[in-house]
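Q: How do we represent a protein-ligand complex in a form that can be generated token by token?
A: Start from the inputs.
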Amino acid sequence: MKLAVFGAGAWGTALAASAATRHEVVLWARDPAQAALIQAERENRRYLPGIALPPSLAIASGTPVPELAARCDLAIIATPMAGLRPMLHSLASCERPVAWLCKGFEATGSEGLLGHEIQAQVAPALRAGILSGPSFALELAQGRPAALVAASGHPAVREALVGAFHGELLRVYANDDITGVEVGGAIKNVLAIACGLCDGLELGLNARAALITRGLAEMTRLGVALGARAETFMGLSGLGDLVLTATGDLSRNRRVGLLLARGSSVQDATGSLGHVAEGVLCARAVVARAERLGVEMPISRAVSRLLGGELKPRAAVAELMARDPAPEVR
Ligand SMILES: NC(=O)c1ccc[n+]([C@@H]2O[C@H](COP(=O)([O-])OP(=O)(O)OC[C@H]3O[C@@H](n4cnc5c(N)ncnc54)[C@H](O)[C@@H]3O)[C@@H](O)[C@H]2O)c1
Ligand SMILES: O=P(O)(O)OC[C@H](O)CO
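Then emit the structure tokens for the protein with nicotinamide-adenine-dinucleotide bound:
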């Protein structure tokens, strides 16, 4: 297969490198200087340091996005959520399957849209989907095994994603519930900030297990309200990615929570990462969307208020613990 990966951050680079051992892959960077550096060093030192890129991986910049996509069997959008709308706009008339890797709700505008909802607005004719699931870029790039989920309403997109990425180190499962897969990937980032805070404040393992479990419940409530299937949240993009991101110190979102617990400002915590932390960017949009649907999301709401400077870490914990008793299953 021929693949184009648009976005040379940590995850785009890791997936492109992984697929390049079996397919013809081009990694496209929007910054020509970054592309030239990656090409010269055969390493993406800025976003994925210490990983030698396979000689077969081509690096591009400058080529217009639609032109490069038209030459491929599958186009992958590997930007953060903030870049998804413009990328989909550029790819609107692409006849090949397109999939994004971004995990979040759109933070700009007032609607707080998921990726497939943005696509329905700007590129409705596209056959599109998402590749998601528990995956730290560094581990995949180090050759460690992982499992992902390819979600789309179009069988051809699911098949293209499985064909491109399923292999020795990656198992790729297919799912037609794109809403469920997108909600899981977005909300786990917000919950990972909460778990980082919990661990940074040394609240203990009991508290962390409670946060993960009740977080899964609120993720599922929002997803079901948006039309997702509840069982999707028991899969790789729900429980799987939540456990990984909430407990794994490679997570940027979890690291933000740890830093906030130590007294860092949101600006310092996110600035120190050098990478995107989608949970920070979309927490407010998640809460606003849930409120419009009448869905209760107390953990996400506490994270959003903390990030907005309305609440201190200890006060957020006290507020969550002071909530009225409630049945476990509603
Ligand atoms: N890193 C991971 O382990 C991982 C795993 C799974 C999914 N993801 C998701 O993939 C997406 C990308 O994450 P990442 O880790 O590669 O990010 P990153 O911070 O490592 O890199 C982001 C890349 O996107 C580019 N970029 C930023 N804004 C852009 C825009 N508006 N238009 C085009 N390009 C833009 C940057 O120049 C950079 O190359 C995120 O939504 C993230 O949640 C990341
Ligand atoms: O580093 P994070 O917190 O953005 O998480 C990365 C991946 O989404 C984990 O699956």
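Residues 147 and 156 are 20 Å apart (CA to CA). The chain has two domains: 2-176, 184-322.
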